[in-house]
């Protein structure tokens, strides 16, 4: 009933529903035969349609001894004959990933004696964990070996053996199952026990690209892409580099230099900007202290230095101030006082700023926004409030 093993390149089939049930709002079906590969051995399941109903997920038990279970978008009837159609583009990519995984497994063994510890092929960027320490030279050598195996375009065969025969077959790693063992052989290159689906010749799995590697659990985690997905990555990266090249009137592979220059320039400009703002804030504070000898002040300042001027003034003994600034389509304010002033900042805020639509808060320094039209009225209301006080 696992028809996908004998017909990995077929994507349409007919079958009978031998069991169908629903539980917890989910619908399931078992068929007399299926081309839908269930999630197992690091390979993600197929999706597609059964009798026009979407197949969302395909499952089997951990030992792969039970039936293949299809989870469906809506129920099917027991006994019903259905046409199954799987998403071939998705499946083919899975076959490319999986074959590339075998090729890399053997390539790392040949390059440095590394063994595969774990595999994840459920995403376009697949991972393989090895038992060797991270080593750039090993990575490059194994990648080259795997791609030579692609160009050799070797046949990939599968067959079953008994577990007793396994030692004689020189499998790359000991099989995890007992009894009947499915062997996947890349002729003259690699032989391993595997229940997954693979392309017919190694040329179909290329190109194989290792995109990144890192230390992982005492060994190395290798990230790779294969086949169409590797080509798509190359296409995306090439487009990005070409676009950046246009921005900088440079060739795609030479954009690093102008981008480096821009970064340097930006860092310098940022430091210069900070120093200039600092100087401006200091000057404005001095001017305000001269302009308002009573140290009670209401003034509009540039938005870019509002906070800095506010912070400086709040440290100046005897100061009570309302500063406002225009920030695009709204006004910002800082209402502050030095602890030596006896006024109740909260009371001022409630009487002067709140009626003008101000939002915000704070204890000795109140920061916030208000509608742009309240900018000048706020300064007048503040002055009026202080005049009443006296
Ligand atoms: Zn496999």
UniProtKB/TrEMBL annotation:
Entry's Gene Ontology molecular function annotations: alanine-tRNA ligase activity; aminoacyl-tRNA deacylase activity; ATP binding; metal ion binding; nucleic acid binding
Chief place of localization: cytoplasm
Pfam families: tRNA-synt_2c, tRNA_SAD
GO CC annotations, alphabetized: cytoplasm
Key word Plastid present: no
Gene3D superfamilies, alphabetized: 2.40.30.130, Threonyl-trna Synthetase, Chain A, domain 2
Subcellular location: Cytoplasm
UniProt keyword list: Aminoacyl-tRNA synthetase, Ligase, Metal-binding, Zinc
UniProt KW Transmembrane keyword: no
InterPro entries, sorted: Ala-tRNA-synth_IIc_core, Ala-tRNA-synth_IIc_N, Alanyl-tRNA_Editing_Enzymes, Thr/Ala-tRNA-synth_IIc_edit, Transl_B-barrel_sf, tRNA_SAD
GO BP of this protein: alanyl-tRNA aminoacylation
Domain (Alanyl-transfer RNA synthetases family profile): residue spans on this chain: 1-236
Cofactor(s) in the UniProt record: Zn(2+)
Domain of life: Bacteria
Coiled coil: none
Protein name per its UniProtKB record: Threonyl/alanyl tRNA synthetase SAD
